[in-house]
Amino acid sequence: MGTSDDHAPLTERVEQLLDGCLPLTIVAAGDPVLRQGTEPYDGQLEPALLARFVEALRVTMRAAPGVGLAAPQVGVGLRIAVIEDPAPVPEEVRLTRGRVPQPFRVLVNPAYEPVGESRAAFFEGCLSVPGWQAVVARHAEVRLTGQDERGQALDEVFEGWPARIVQHETDHLDGVLYLDRAEPRSLSSNLAMAERWAQPTPEEAARALGFELP
Ligand code: ZN
Question: How many domains does the chain have?
């Protein structure tokens, strides 16, 4: 907690961002803001400013396009992220990856813990690491706690692709990039992904590139 004076620099930073054009510029890997972790949100932004900031995150995520965006990715060190996945994928991919539609959600102060021991490994990418994808073995199911943008408690179990999205975005808020958790030998350019690794699972890639799957 703190007075509004303590929060002035952060508030000014957000106001400055919102004075500019949308979509916002997405910060790329190498910028310390992606590595410094975030302040829990405790009212630093007035409700109207928070609403405008969340809307800017949504516009920026959709324009990218991406399925999630965390505040540090637009240069703001606050524990806030948005997710949304229309999941326009073939049936086989939907079944194998559990990539079901995820409605738009605002995650305020999210934290996750695994449910069970099962892990799922698939290629994923990040708007802050453009041009590349890599395989990450993540918890297949997680319990996510936190709040929504109105301060209502959030306590929900996610599975399938939405579980991957909430882990990826929550990690951003802790200064963690997906590459920190990835199989280094799986690193593939978008071109290689399109030409070689479009299969529903990364099994062929694991054999050809020489990395382990759980
Ligand atoms: Zn990311």
Answer: 1
